[in-house]
Structure formats: structure tokens, C-alpha cells
Specification:
about 110 residues, mainly alpha, 6 helices, about 70% helix
């Protein structure tokens, strides 16, 4: 509620700050039930990040989540596989990400 609104306001004031944009995308994601479609603001926010930092690793993760939630498991798998390849071998996110990839339905 309030956190999402505050981050949305901050994101609108600082469209070039990818850290704020990604914080807002994360808040939108957390505020949306897993079975519900993601709000348009989620895609709009990621588009701002993509324009500034197309190789941002958090962007790859969020893009994969968006694809998975939109019923596009092949796209999610492709994005998350790219992310997995870019992560350091000792990154804590690796095992979680591999679990997410393994849980995707067949194409």
C-alpha cells in the first residue's frame, strides 16, 4: 500500500535512477498475488530500466518473473538462463534461480 505508493512517487521523480525503478518494480511484484497479472506499471518500470541499463542483472530476473507470470515459460527460461550464466558461482541467488528454472512448466 503505502510503500508501493511512496516508491511509485519516487520512481516518477527519478526516472533515470535504475535503483529506485528496480525497488519500485520489486514492491509492485510483492504487492501482487502470484496468480494475478502484474500491473502495467511493472512493465513500464522495467522498460525505463531496460532503456538505461539493458544488461542489468536484476532486470533479467524481473523480466523472467514477468514472462513466467504471463504464461511464457520459454521466455522466462531464456532470461533466467542468461542471468544464471552472468552470476558469480558463489552467488546466493544461484540455487534459488535454478529452482525457479526447474519449476517452470514445459514449453
Amino acid at each position: 500500500g503505502d510503500t508501493v505508493a511512496a516508491l511509485g512517487h519516487a520512481a516518477s521523480l527519478a526516472p533515470d535512477r535504475t535503483d529506485i525503478q528496480l525497488d519500485y518494480a520489486g514492491a509492485l511484484l510483492q504487492g501482487t498475488p502470484e496468480t494475478a497479472p502484474l500491473p502495467p506499471a511493472f512493465d513500464e518500470t522495467l522498460a525505463r530500466v531496460r532503456a538505461k541499463e539493458p544488461g542489468n542483472l536484476a532486470l533479467l530476473y524481473f523480466d523472467g518473473l514477468g514472462a513466467a507470470r504471463a504464461g511464457r515459460p520459454a521466455d522466462a527460461r531464456k532470461l533466467w538462463t542468461r542471468l544464471l550464466a552472468a552470476l558469480p558461482t558463489d552467488a546466493p541467488l544461484r540455487s534459488h534461480l535454478q529452482d525457479e528454472i526447474n519449476a517452470l512448466p514445459a514449453d
